[in-house]
Amino acid sequence: LQECKIQNSSREYCKIFAAEARAVPDFGAVPEIIPLYLIYRPANNIPYATMEEDLGGPCEQYCVTERDGSLVARGTSEIVLKCCTFQHWVYQWTNGNILVTDIEGVGWKMTNVRIATNLKGYQGLKESCFPSLLEQFAAAHQCNRYCSILGLKTLEPAKPKGSKSPSMGRKSAQSSPQLQK
């Protein structure tokens, strides 16, 4: 249940990120986090299972948390750089409260995401979930050209506050389609 909440919440952030990225010329293709479904099988020994779209190939790791607790981008491909930009965007969008830490997938379709947060009770987590990764990310993230294209600020460890869009210089009339009411 928790895995579904985490992946599907990250998917919602990714949809907003995609809308903002598509509004910016020259950004190009955007990663998509696929939905993860929880299914109930009452006649089975294990009554709950998760299900998601078949990605059609072996997953590649784009951004991972290493055993020593460090966050690492696996390569410098366009996909990896845009996943890093997405991480930066979520971190900034949530004022340093949430970070998508692990991202893998096939092409532009992402799965098996994880998060780090210092928000107690976020997505049913009773305790903080790797808050040290938030600080480590802010100190270690190297902005790339896609961070610049979106106008993201250079990161500094943030104090928890409310959430708002990290896009700079946007007027309210230019908000993302998902944000319009």
Word description of this protein:
With 181 residues, the protein is α+β, with helices and mostly antiparallel strands. It has a single domain (1-150), classed as Alpha-Beta Barrel (Protein kinase-like fold), CATH 3.20.200. The chain has helices at residues 2-22, 78-93, 131-140, 145-149; strands at 32-33, 37-40, 48-51, 60-65, 71-73, 98-106, 109-117. A 5-stranded mixed sheet has the order 1-7-6-4-5. A two-stranded antiparallel ribbon has the order 2-3. A hairpin with a 7-residue loop joins strand 2 and strand 3. The radius of gyration is 16 Å and the shape is globular. 30% of the residues are buried.
Please summarize what this structure is.
With 181 residues, the chain is an alpha+beta fold.
Sheet/helix structural class: alpha+beta
Taking the alpha carbons of the first and last residues, their distance comes to 30 Å
How many E-type strands? 7
- Tell me about the biggest sheet? 5 strands, mixed
Rg (C-alpha, Å): 16 Å
Query: How many helix segments?
Result: 4
Report the helical percentage.
25-40%
**Low-pLDDT residue spans:** 168-181
The SSE string, one letter per element, is HEEEEEHEEHH
Under the CATH scheme, the architecture is: Alpha-Beta Barrel
CATH superfamily: MHCK/EF2 kinase
CATH topology: Protein kinase-like fold
Oligomer: single chain
Large-scale geometry: globular
Q: How many domains in all?
A: 1
Global mean pLDDT: 84
User: What is the CATH first-level class name?
Assistant: Alpha Beta
Task: Provide keyphrases for this structure.
181 residues, alpha+beta, Protein kinase-like fold, 5-stranded mixed β-sheet, 7 strands, protein serine/threonine kinase activity, kinase, disulfide bond
